[in-house]
Write a structure and sequence with these properties.
Strand order of the largest sheet: 1-2
Keywords: Coiled coil
Organism: Lentzea albida
Number of strands: 2
Radius of gyration: 79 Å
Largest sheet: 2 strands, antiparallel
Protein name: DivIVA protein
């Protein structure tokens, strides 16, 4: 029985010890294994109970068959004596069936009792193992909680010491800051004074430079004005000379154009006169030809005058 319990619920090899107790993953895996074994044990128990129920059903069926056989035997016994041998055989069969049914019933009850005992023993072993592990884990958790509390207390004390140290350092830093602020204020005042002196000096130098620049600019302006006047006079003279040259050139061009136009007009007038003379000559020629034609026509008309016939004269 003990060997079977060790096979069903194997002992654990132990957990690794880490900083805050046992290794969490190993503990969780072991608990999961125990739950799985408990689930398998429950399944085995359910199968055993189902098998016992099946055996009870078979026993009931056997009892029913036995009752039916007894009823048939009783019916046969009530028949005639010719069936005595058959009745004796039926009695033997009935006794054998009763013995077999009783044996099956006893065997079933023994198997059910054995299975129940094994299941209860396994459940008790699993429960005891789980309780032992739970107690060990509870003790480990309590020890870890105590260690954690001690650690928290030590850390709180360390934090208080650090807080006091920080307050002291803050006070020192504030004193240094005030001292540094005073030094900076003094340095700023000195820098402002130096800057004021430099600014006054720069203003004086700037005023002198401005005066000199104004004088230089006035001289340059006068020179520029003179140069501008000279330049404007020179450019005015050049423009007048250029204008005169342009007028002379335009006058020469106009005279040339007028001369060319006169020549062209004279040429065209000569052509017109020649053309007019030609037309007059042509007119005279045509007039003479027309006069000659009229004369010829008159002569021809006289030649073709009608001759008076005597009959025509008498008729008239």
């Amino acid at each position: 029985m003990g060997a079977k319990e060790q096979e069903l619920v194997p002992l654990h090899a132990g957990f690794d010890v880490v900083y805050r107790g046992f290794h969490r993953r190993q503990v969780i895996e072991h608990i999961e294994n125990l739950e799985e074994q408990l689930r398998f044990t429950s399944l085995d128990r359910a199968e055993a109970l189902a098998q016992a129920a099946d055996l009870r059903k078979i026993l009931e069926m056997t009892r029913q068959d036995l009752e039916e056989a007894r009823a048939r035997i009783e019916r046969l016994e009530t028949t005639s004596g010719s069936h005595a041998s058959a009745t004796e055989r039926m009695h033997r069969m009935l006794r054998l069936a009763e013995d077999e049914a009783a044996e099956m019933h006893l065997q079933t009850e023994r198997e059910c009792a054995d299975l129940r005992e094994r299941t209860e023993a396994e459940l008790a072993a699993v429960r005891a193992e789980a309780e032992r592990e739970s107690a060990a884990m509870r003790a480990e958790a309590e020890s870890e909680l105590y260690a954690t509390r001690q650690d928290c207390a030590s850390r709180a004390a360390a934090m208080e010491r650090r807080e006091l140290e920080m307050e002291r350092r803050c006070a020192d830093l504030e004193a240094q800051h005030r001292q540094r602020a005073d030094e900076v204020e003094r340095e700023c005042a000195e820098a402002v004074e130096l800057a004021q002196v430099d600014a006054d000096r720069l203003l004086r130098e700037t005023a002198l430079q401005c005066n000199s620049l104004e004088a230089d600019s006035e001289r340059k302006r006068e020179k520029a004005q003179q140069f501008f006047e000279l330049t404007m006079t020179r450019r005015t003279n050049e423009a007048a000379q250029h204008l005169q040259e342009q007028e002379a050139l335009a006058r020469a061009r106009s005279e040339f154009v007028v001369k060319m136009a006169s020549r062209e007009a004279q040429r065209r007038l000569a052509e017109v006169a020649d053309r007019t003379a030609e037309l007059h000559e042509l007119r005279r020629t045509v007039h003479s030809q027309l006069s000659a034609a009229r004369t010829a026509l008159s002569a021809a008309a006289e030649r073709v005058a009608p001759v008076h016939i005597p009959e025509q004269v008498a008729a008239s």
